[in-house]
Amino acid sequence: MLVxxxxxxxxxxxxxxxxxxRPRPQQRSAxxxxxxxxxxxxxxxxxxxxxxFCVKTRxxxxxxxxxxxxxxxxxxxxAREQLLAGGGKIKVPCLRIEEAGGTRWLYxxxxxxxxxxxxxxxxx
Length: 124
Known about the structure:
It is a single chain. This protein is α+β, with helices and mostly antiparallel strands. The protein is built from 5 helices and 4 strands, in the order H-H-E-H-E-H-E-E-H. The protein has a 4-stranded mixed beta sheet with strand order 2-1-3-4. A hairpin with a 2-residue loop joins strand 3 and strand 4 (102-107). The protein is flat and about 50 Å long.
């Protein structure tokens, strides 16, 4: 019970620290931001609110100014089931990418951030 209380308390501290130190979003032209918004409609992030790797990923999403829809796989049973059915495992963070060829599920925060930076960082 003590370990759970520590984990929950530490998680809330991480979320609070993120809110205080969140980076500024990337500034783009209206046309560039519209293009990013259109492409981001095909992205969804499955995450837990207080997971440090999820916080890291959400910070990158915020910094890149990419409006990715968020799904709480811890408290939303439907999101949890979608993650398991589509991705094959309940592991977060996980980025769901809708592509012309189907759906791709990308795990690991560093891989997700690299994908987002490669796709959106250079859009002006």
